[in-house]
Amino acid sequence: MDLVTWDKSYSVNVDSCDAEHRRLFYLLNELHKAMKAGQSSAVIAGTVHQLEKYTQTHFLAEEARMQSAQYAKLPEHRMEHQKFVAKVKQFRSDLETGNKCDAVAVVTFVKNWLSTHIMQTDKMYSKDLNSHGIK
Fold it and tell me: Which of 33, 79, 88, 120 is the most core-located residue (most Cβ within 10 A)?
């Protein structure tokens, strides 16, 4: 069973953003499955790398959509993205240097951040993007 299941409540009414968010849920759920199987140490580095790479791609695309819609809260939104990327980079750095970085910390952070960010921050741009033909 997945830790977080995508449903319509997470939709921001922008198909491309929803698809990208589902990919992030998938990465989170894969790490959670590995944890439940006792294999988190074998997959955590790869998952953190994928999260770092994919969120940067997603955030750039999402911000470009907001830019094209002249979304007024883009600067604040971008700052939230930068904080997430910094935290994931810290997880990667901890893994590379042998510092403690356990799967529970990664899963907890990503789950909480995604849920809060999508449900509160991302949903705020829906009308602006939709009104500029971005659906």
Answer: 88
Which DSSP string do the residues of 33-55 spell out, in sequence order? HHHHTT-HHHHHHHHHHHHHHHH
| Domains along the chain with CATH numbers | 14-33+42-131 (1.20.120.50)
- Tens of pLDDT along the chain (135 residues)? 899 999 999 999 999 999 999 999 999 999 999 888 988 888 888 999 999 999 999 999 999 999 999 999 999 999 999 999 999 999 999 888 887 778 899 999 999 999 999 999 999 999 999 999 999
Contact 88, 51 (CB under 8 A): yes
